[in-house]
Each structure stands twice: as C-alpha cells, then as structure tokens.
Design a protein that fits this description.
alpha+beta; 14-stranded antiparallel beta sheet; 5 helices; binds 2-acetamido-2-deoxy-beta-D-glucopyranose; signal
Length: 265
Amino acid sequence: MHSLSLITLVLTAASAILAHAPVKSKRSEGLLTNAQRLKRGLPPLPPVARWSPTRHALVARASPVPCTTQTISGLIEVTDDISGTLYGYVTTDYFLGYSTFDPTEDPRTVSITIPCNPSADDLVGLNIASLISGGGGTNDHPYFGAIMSYDASDNDLSSANANYAWMGTTDLTSAVPTVTSNSAQDAQGAKQASESPVWTYDPATGALTLTWYNTDGSAATTYPVKVDSLLFATENVQHLAARLNRSDLRVVNYRLVQTTVVQNR
Ligand SMILES: *[C@@H]1O[C@H](CO)[C@@H](O)[C@H](O)[C@H]1NC(C)=O
C-alpha cells in the first residue's frame, strides 16, 4: 500500500471522528448543571415540571375499580342475650358432630361474602363459610349452619313442640331442611336435615341472626340457645329447657368479631 493512501485513510478517519465530535458534546450538554452551562456560555435549562396540573387532573379523575363483593372474615362471638356476658367463640371442636364454643378452645375462623353496597335483602339467607386450616374436628363441612336433631318430630321448628336444631357444619343447601352431608351425620350416622343459608348479617354491628327455614320455606321464629358448650336453635325455649331438663339453658347472640374485609374485584 502507498504511504500516501495510508495517510489519506487516517485523515479521512480522523475527520469522520471530528465531524461526529460536536454531536457528542451536544448530547453531554444535557447532563451539565446550570452552573456548568453558564460557565460554558450555554443558556440555562428550562425548569423540570415535577408537578403537572394535567397529570394531577388525570389521577383525580381515574375512578377506583369498583368492587363486586366483599368477604368479611372473623370469629363468631357467643354472648348471653340478657346480660351480654361473653361465653366464648365458636370453636373448631365437635361434640358428637355438633359445634361447640369455649373460651379455652381454638376459635373457628369463618367468613361471609356480601355485595359491596348491600340492600337489606342481600344480608338475609347468607352462608357462613368455615375456613378450616389445621386443627379442628374430623367432621368438617364447608358451612357453619344448623342441623335438626335426630329425634325431632319433623324438620320444622314450632312453638307447639320442643323440636330443636344443633349448630354444626354442613354442605351447601337451599333455605329448606335438606338431608345432606353434615357434621352430625358423619359422627352419628343418622340422616339429619341441615341448612346452610340461615344467617342474617348486620354490617354495622356484626350481629349474626339465626333463622331456621321450615319445610314450607317459612322462617321459624328462631331462638339461638346454649347448654354447657353446645349451641341449639329452637322456637320454644321453655319446652326445650323442660325437655332437656336444664334450667340453665340460655338464649345467646352471635356476632362476627375481629373482622378483616377483602374487597373482591
Ligand atoms: C332434672 O335435673 C335435676 C337437677 O339436675 C335432677 O335432680 C332431676 O333428676 C332431673 N330430672 C330428670 C327427669 O332427669
């Protein structure tokens, strides 16, 4: 190769680099502080908009994603209807397949799901889902509901007799006495009708009102009662007390407490 053409090549390359040099320096100008720019005779940069009225308006206008339902989880508190005495919380334990409550046993975590802006009707006939996690009995079913006693005269609660239901866990049913799998049937073998959608919920107080639905679909006047650590439902408290020969039978109230709410989208 002629040395002349080598020199030409080198010069061409050098001029190419030089031609690009101003572009490089221009790019780096953007990284200089205004003080450095002033020293180099460059105009100051325009102020950076940290708060944009347009962007702010957009954020404010964007409405939150509406929730469809909310799931409220907690424990079921059992208190005396008259004195308000706290008896305990519905537990994960069973007695002959019936749910118990006891201040010393593990409480059962449950949940209900209701619409986000519930109407009064939305709060009636609810299921209480029983969140079983470890522990608990061998008779668990998905819902905490009521189970007609095996020796009842029929599947209805009535002021005319001492029929009563026990609280326990059951598979999902509609709001009529239904022979299905439940905790008492598992424990005793007898086919006993149960109901899951027996709850009315008051979001303001957490109150859970129990209603047994009779065979014709009508709502029985339902009194939740307790004897020892067992929970029952009856329409005639005096008849039941006499039948069980228990003067210490008490009417109780249920309430969902220690709640956490999840908005479902
Ligand atoms: C009813 O209970 C009382 C007091 O515990 C007892 O003395 C009585 O024998 C019981 N009656 C029946 C019929 O079981």
